[in-house]
Amino acid sequence: MHPPGADVVVVRHGEIGTKSEHVGTKMERRLRENLDAVLADRGVDAEIEQRRFRLWLHTDDPEGATAAAADTFGVVSASPAVRVDPTIESIREALAEAARQGYDGGAFAVSARRAGVESAHPFSSTDIEREGGSAVWNAAEAAGVDPEVDLDDPDTELFVDCREDDALVFLEKRAGPGGLPLGTQDPVVALLSGGIDSPVAAWELMKRGAPVIPLYVDLGDYGGVDHRARAVSTTETLARYAPTRDVRLRIAPAGDAVADIAEAVDVGRMLVLRRFMFRVAAAVAEERGAVGIVAGESVGQKSSQTTANLAVTSAAVDLPVHRPLLTVDKTEITARADEIGTFHESTIPAGCDRLAPDYPETRGRLGAIREREPAGLSERARAVADRLEVVEGARDGVGDRDPAEGETA
Ligand code: ATP
Ligand code: MG
Question: Which residues form the THUMP domain (predicted)?
Fold first, then answer.
């Protein structure tokens, strides 16, 4: 919610501040470019101004600009704000206006900060809080609201950032994803199954700066159009967070290979299959200059996800398999999927379920699995990776940057 007259959005970033000046400057530039692209992608008109430790968005659409910032990796929080003269009287007036807009009962608090201007003004931040609080109180009473103050746990918090030349008044610090700007790491291949977990895992890597190349492995008769459709729609959602990137879904036609594996392998079949998927992903990574694989596994969530079996499947490839959900419970993963916007698109069990035996292996041993594995699976995975189908989504043409280009912290 923004105060009346808000025409600027203050955007805060976090971890970039821990970097050396050289790296930090590069990352800030990347953040600005990415934010600019998200704004443009959503048709929000805003001019970005680089400030110290902050970006300012000058805009007529404070809500749209705030929402865009809150979906940009690297952003910690965003506040649509009104700018006034740095005098107690102007601040009181702005707070009263803001209260009429954003305070309609419960307890409130005014939190003030004087950023680096200790001697510039004849009042302290405590003065602002006390004077501002009384302005809010009066405005509320005049509007028929019964005001109450709670400095520790307010229902409504009104913020003042007092600086040398102006003061900002705002009603919220909307949380962004945090993390680092997208494109500050080299890309990884994201295995997307159409399930709940895998898009969250991909998003977590994006959040830390790594662009993803989404890959769905088509299991042929063991997969299904429903899974594929969900992989497509979750990819579209992920792409909204990355308008500068090529986030088109790649589909690997693995039906024949999977059928042969299913026929040839009984005990340990799931592990052989998952090792095959990783090999396909590794072949795609090699082709596209990606430096890892990300998957949505979580310890013990499925028989193929025991610590022993994760060891067996990881060993199929030289590239690291990133598993950001490794220790995250399903309820938490589901909540994150909901926030990211991928949840509703992915509420069916993934196709692997149809391949799983009644009593699947939970303690695979690498040597035994290798012995049962049909020969030539690596070559076969490469052949599958050579025949990728690229899904031209609704966002086609938006991302024209090469995801292989990264910039390391
Ligand atoms: P999800 O984890 O996406 O919700 P799931 O929980 O059913 O699906 P599994 O089928 O055990 O998980 O798969 C574990 C991981 O392997 C997935 O998170 C995903 O990264 C990857 N994966 C599984 N099936 C496919 C597929 N058909 N194509 C691409 N990746 C897949
Ligand atoms: Mg899962």
Answer: 63-173
Atom 7 of ligand 1, residue of closest alpha carbon: 350
Q: Is 87 exposed, middle or buried (0-12, 13-18, 19+ CB in 10 A)?
A: middle
From the CB of 293, is ligand 1 less than 6 Å away?
A: no
Separation of alpha carbons 352 and 197, rounded Å? 14
The first and second tokens of residue 303, run together, are 């028989």
Three-state SS at 36: helix
Dihedral class, residue 180 (left if φ above 0, else alpha if ψ from -120 to 50, else beta): beta
Does residue 198 register a pLDDT over 50? Answer: yes
Q: Is 55 annotated as a binding residue?
A: no
CATH topology assigned to domain 8-174: VC0802-like (3.30.2130)
Q: What is the mean pLDDT of the chain?
A: 92
Distance CA 275, CA 369 (A): 10
Atom of ligand 1 nearest to the CA of 274: 16
Per CATH, 8-174 and 188-390 having the same topology is answered no
Q: What is the CATH number of domain 188-390?
A: 3.40.50.620
Residue 233, pLDDT score: 93
- 196 CA from centroid of ligand 1 (Å): 9
- Burial of 15 from C-beta contacts in 10 A (0-12 / 13-18 / 19+): middle
Ligand 1, closest atom to CA 190?
20
- What H or E segment, with its residue span, contains residue 8? strand 8-13
Answer whether 198 contacts ligand 1 (Cβ < 6 A): yes
Over the stretch 206-235, which tens digit does the pLDDT of each residue have?
A: 999 999 999 999 999 888 778 899 999 999
